[in-house]
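Supplementary Methods, section 5.1.

A reviewer requested that the exact input to the structure prediction be made available. We therefore reproduce it here, unchanged from the version used in the analyses.
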Amino acid sequence: MDAETAKVFDTPSKFHHEGGTAVVYYTRGLDKVRDNDTIIPLIPNEIALFICDIPGYGDSTTATSDKASHCRSILAALRHALPHPTPYTNLILAGHDRGARLIHRMIIEHSDYKSLPVRVVSGALTIRSAILLDIVPTLVQWRGFGFSSASQRSFHWPFLANVEIATQMIEKLGGGLWCKMSMERWRGTYAHGINRLEDGAMEVYAKHFEKSEVVRATCEDYRYGGNEEVRLQEEDQAAGRNIAVPTLVLYSSAFLGRDEKEVKRIWEDENWIRPGTEFKASPIEVKPDDGSIGHFIAEEAPDYVANKMVHWIERLNKKR
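The structure derived from this sequence is encoded token-by-token as follows.
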């Protein structure tokens, strides 16, 4: 196996023509989406869907925490998986948490800011849109630790970023147990959501965290996020490099601790989205009496997430 591999598999689809649109979904463990009830079965077959395993998580391997390297690995695997990619092959990138942050970096790295409108192209592939699940920009997240509630809710960020200490402590406790304890802390109170997580999804996540290389790669990912990625985003902001493709942000207001107005303000008013670019922030919520949706929105409320994703994708396709 190479030092770094990115695993990709495609679902049954009708993506066999030039100029098609493919949705690329980033996850942490391909068997999680194969074996468990997530949003994947809810995406119509006519939408081509390719699933990418994030390097270092799940079954993919990595020798670096560098996001640019991860982007190259995934794009290379994707080009191999796509039938006859052309410059008219449009990608809609979708991902949750760390996958969403990787997408954010990928779009910035492949944007031609000299062209008007800005084009986001990698070789024979055009990135047309982004669907980001349950994040605000990494720099915003780190700056939020000035508030006690944010520090308590996301204590794992600075903890995991201390790679050597965190790796040893997690392995002493047991990676699987650490994973389960964390997921129980971050999930919501929606009964159906809890049942979905406990019906296999948590076990898949936990299984991967029993592997020492996954624990270390995870910690290195957070270390990178608190160092190189923060520096890159500060440089991006200063240079006016921002997201210039239509972007949908789906999130848990209970987990992020932010309402729709604030999420929209952060992405648009703080210049993370290029002025004039189509943007929508939409919370994933159930009726208040039914409880709350936590961080794992794709597992806890797959029908809600898939419905909003499909509506966004279909509307984009009509505008072509």
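The chain has a mean pLDDT of 83. These observations are discussed further in the main text.
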